[in-house]
Every structure is written in C-alpha cells, then in structure tokens.
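Ticket #4471: structure output looks truncated?

Reporter: J.K.
Steps to reproduce: submitted the chain below (266 residues) through the standard prediction queue, then opened the result file.
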Amino acid sequence: MEERLKVLVAEDETILRKGLILTTDWKALGMVVIAEADNGIDAQELALKLEPDILVTDIAMPGMDGLELIGILSDQLPDCECIIISGHAQFSYAQKALGYGVKGYILKPIDPKELMVVLSKAAKEIYNRKQEREKDLELEQLRELSERFLPTKVSTTKDYRDQYIQKAISVIEQHYAEHLNVADIAEHMGLSERTLSNLFKDRTGYTFLEYLTLYRMRIATSLLQQKERQVGEVALLVGYKDYRYFCKIFKSCFNVTPLEFKKGEL
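Returned output as attached by the reporter:
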C-alpha cells in the first residue's frame, strides 16, 4: 500500500479551514491532512516539525503571511509543494508566488473541482520527483555493486612467482570472451595445472575460474549499460554461448537478472 502524501493546511478563517479539510476527498487523492494552523508562525513551526509533502495556505494571516511562509519553506523544505488560496487577485501576489515555485493559486471562494485539479498536479510532481531520485539511487547502487566485482590485480613485487600471475591475468583480460582454462595456460607457461592453480589462489585470493567469471561479469555490467546492447549479445561478447547460464551466473553475482540490471531495477 502506497504511503499517503502529508498535507498541512494554514488558514486563519476557521470556517473556511475546517470546511476545506472536511469536504475535500483527501483519500481519493492519496493524501491525508496531518495538521492545521490559523497563523503563519504556527504553520512554519508545524511544517518544520512534520515536514509535509504539500502546504495549502492563505496569504493574509496573522504573524506571518503566506508568501513569507512559502519563502522560508522553499529554502528549508524544498520538496514541499505549496498551493495558495487567497482573496487577493492582484498580479503581484501571483507573480511572487510563481517565483517560489507555487503549484497553484486559487481564489476564494474555493472551487472544489479546481482545488482537486491543483492538488492532483502537485501529487504528480512529488511522485515524479521521488521516482527520479529512486532511479538515480538504484543506478548508483548498481554502479557501486559492479565495481566491487572487479577482481583486483596482484600487486607488483619482487617475488618472481608474480610474473606467472600477471601473465595469467593478462590472458584473461585479452581473451575473456574465448574458451579459457587453467590447464592450457599452465601448459603454455611450462607449469603444472596444480602449481598455477595454487599460485593463482594464493596471490589473488580467487581461483582461476572465479577470477575469470568475475572479470566477465564486470565487463558485462559495462556492456549492459549501453542502450543498444541486447542481453543475448552481451552474453556472447563475454564468452557465454548459453544465454540461460549467463543469466544464472549474473544473478548469482548481483542478485538481479541482466535485464533488471539493464533497466536499472534492484
């Protein structure tokens, strides 16, 4: 169940304020009124404490007018959408309100249909903003996740054994899309399969197959971020002829399918 948007109503005329709160179908809008205030100072205090998603406010109020209130909240609660209800039709008021990013300027007496339209517009803005932020967060998480799966190269030391590891890693980086196994590489180096396997594990912390697989997955994440690349194509490019097996390995590493990764879904 989606959480309702929180609304704060600020209006010094009690009958108008109560009527607006009681007659508006907040539930249908996916909203709930969390507080009300009859002056600008109380409205500011409540807003900073409760952090509403939407503020519905009059302009002329005791203590602090609605425009001043909106100006303060635009700095301290930039995500709060503001809607003005007012008996003032002057262009200067509307112009100043627009400067603060106000989503609606409704003249009294309030037309319920107009209010519903403006509230719906504000809700859409809020949901769109939240979705964009969630997408940005998911993409950042996926980028961080893919970076963690890039095997670290063995550091250069004076140990002569590292030359074999560097050669093996070089083969992986140049030929990861081909059929590779530790036995063939060991034979090419004049080592036994067991010797190279043990040495590789000791110097990198991975088995040869683990390193190869993780390197392929890292390359796959880069390719999947290219819009023109299809998942099946990426599988072949990183050395997997079996599409289903590629998807299985990818999900075991990242806990998402290649397609979910490509769409930015976690």
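Triage note (M.O.): checked the attachment and the full token line is present. The chain has a mean pLDDT of 85.
Status: closed, working as intended.
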